[in-house]
Specification:
Number of domains: 2
Order of helices and strands: HHHHEHEHEHEHHEHHEEHEHEH
Mean pLDDT: 87
Number of strands: 9
Number of helices: 14
Helix content: 40-55%
CATH topology of the largest domain: Rossmann fold
CATH class of the largest domain: Alpha Beta
Structural class: alpha/beta
Largest sheet: 9 strands, mixed
Low-confidence stretches: 55-66
Length: 316
């Protein structure tokens, strides 16, 4: 392991301990090392300057000190919590750190007793699932896991919902529940026939019982574009779409755009609204405009995001 890799590892361990409140045993399990080794790495992180500790008397602040970024976002957007991940050496390293933070947060929720989880799709969720697949130990993901959206094309691994659920299930104790439809239908009649199937009723019942939903926050426009032209025509441009949550498009002011020709198959908004904990996760290339729009929607309770992206939301 070279020095750069060593420093990245020290930073990852320190983030989990100091920012995500993970125990040393939890960190040891995540990295496949002993608890004494975690303690040793934390001490080294201090020596190397990766971690600095500032002691302040309660109620006192330094002149001109900025309020904690996450606290500002919680106040501005009504968030219940989250984890902001410092940027890495590049987008790849940052996204890996975000995925690790997201996984640690989901495991914490499972440890608190949440049993029924749903996951969306996309690059950063695919990255998180990849971290689960490469974990040296089984992860905690409750008792049941299901997709929140139908399946995309076979060539898009991170958008094949059932495959993501299968991987999570195989590396945890969660029983999988699958969705047997594409992400979007060609017509209203085809959508209605799909929604009449018993398999759809089963996945809907799973959505109704969810305790945690992990959703992607994406840009608009994006690649792939999720058949947006066929579903919305010029509406997305006309109504200033700025973001995606799952396969829903969100305007700059936070409203979800609706279209009579949108035949997407995904958890209905009224059910998403009922989920007690919706965790929104975004990657290093998510633009601040998209993140702000998604948070204004009111559907997201917890944010897992790169700190540099989130910091742009507090700029005047």
């Amino acid at each position: 392991m070279d020095r750069a890799q060593r420093m990245e590892r020290l930073a990852a361990v320190a983030r989990m301990y100091y920012e995500e409140d993970c125990t040393q045993n939890e960190i040891a399990g995540r990295f496949g090392i002993s608890r004494p080794m975690v303690s040793k790495l934390l001490k080294e992180a201090k020596r190397q300057g990766v971690v600095t500790i500032q002691i302040r008397v309660p109620g006192q602040t330094e002149t001109g000190e900025k309020k904690d970024l996450l606290s500002l976002l919680k106040q501005k957007y009504g968030l219940a919590g989250g984890v902001l991940v410092r940027g890495g050496a590049g987008d790849v390293a940052t996204n890996q750190a975000v995925a690790d933070a997201g996984l640690a947060y989901l495991e914490r929720l499972a440890g608190e007793g949440r049993k029924r989880f749903g996951i969306g799709w996309g690059h950063i969720i695919g990255e998180l699932v990849g971290r689960i697949e490469g974990s040296p130990r089984p992860v905690q993901m409750g008792e049941a896991i299901c997709p929140l959206i139908g399946n995309s094309g076979a060539g898009l691994k991170n958008y094949h919902s059932n495959e993501l659920v299968r991987v999570v299930s195989e590396h945890s104790q969660a029983v999988p529940e699958f969705i047997y439809t594409p992400a979007s239908m060609a017509s209203e009649q085809e959508l209605e026939r799909t929604m009449d199937l018993e398999s759809y009723h089963e996945i809907r019942r799973a959505w109704e019982r969810l305790e945690v939903a992990l959703v992607n926050i994406g840009n608009f426009p994006s690649v792939p574009d999720f058949a947006s032209k066929a579903r919305y025509g010029e509406q997305l441009v006309r109504e200033r779409a700025a973001a995606r949550i799952l396969n829903y498009f969100v305007g700059e002011d936070g409203h979800v755009l609706r279209s009579e020709t949108d035949y997407a198959v995904q958890i209905p908004l009224e059910l998403l609204k009922q989920v007690p904990c919706v965790v929104g996760i975004c990657s290093a290339n998510t633009n601040p405009r998209a993140l702000a729009a998604a948070l204004r929607s009111g559907y997201i309770h917890v944010l897992i995001a790169p700190e540099p992206v989130a910091a742009r939301l507090t700029e005047s």
